[in-house]
Amino acid sequence: MWGAAAGGDLDRLKKEAAALSKEFLVSGELEEAARCVRELEAPSYLHEVVKKLVSSAIVDGGPRELELALQLTRRLSEDTLLTGEQLAHGCTRLVEAAPDLRLDHPRAPDLLAEYLERCCSLTLLSPSEEWTSHAAALRGGKS
């Protein structure tokens, strides 16, 4: 079920997820990033890709990188590489990490809220009421 992670090489997968996230946010090459995600062969691990991608976009980037993260999320969902369950799991982990992200970037909760709202508007995250509630809590500082 974990694909390549079934072999117990989670550290390698974490490193690859971080590397592909950083490379994508620099290059913006959507096709290449989708190919790299496919080659991970770890469909049950894509929540970590979401977490690394969005946290890198927030902490190390700006509006361009957040938009790129959203584009890759959308592409992976359209290609059925990223399931709604894996996206939700990654977003849950991001919401839980919001206080730590705020230490690295004061606007992190607002940026994460924007990502969640945009995912809801694209019908990538459901139930949207739950996720817009998380976004509202992030914007209110209740993360």
Tell me what the structure shows:
This protein is mostly helical and 143 residues long. The protein has a single domain, classed as Serine Threonine Protein Phosphatase 5, Tetratricopeptide repeat (Alpha Horseshoe), CATH 1.25.40. The chain is 75% helix and 0% strand. Helix 3 (46-60) packs across helix 6 (108-121). The longest helix is centred in the middle third of the chain and has 21 residues, at 84-104.
Topology readout:
Blueprint: H1 10-27, H2 30-40, H3 46-60, H4 63-78, H5 84-104, H6 108-121, H7 128-139
Helix pairs in contact: 1-2, 1-3, 2-4, 3-4, 3-5, 3-6, 4-6, 5-6, 6-7
The portion of residues forming beta strands comes to: under 5%
Briefly note the structural class of the backbone.
mainly alpha
Number of domains: 1
Total beta strands: 0
Count helical runs: 7
What sort of overall outline do the alpha carbons produce when their principal axes are compared?
globular
User: Quick one: biggest sheet?
Assistant: none
Low-confidence stretches: 1-6
Summarize model confidence as the mean pLDDT: 90
User: Quick one: CATH class?
Assistant: Mainly Alpha
Percentage of residues in helical conformation: over 70%
CATH topology: the name is Serine Threonine Protein Phosphatase 5, Tetratricopeptide repeat
Radius of gyration: 14 Å
What is the chain-wise order of helices and strands? HHHHHHH
Question: What is the straight-line distance between the termini?
Answer: 32 Å
* CATH hierarchy: architecture: Alpha Horseshoe
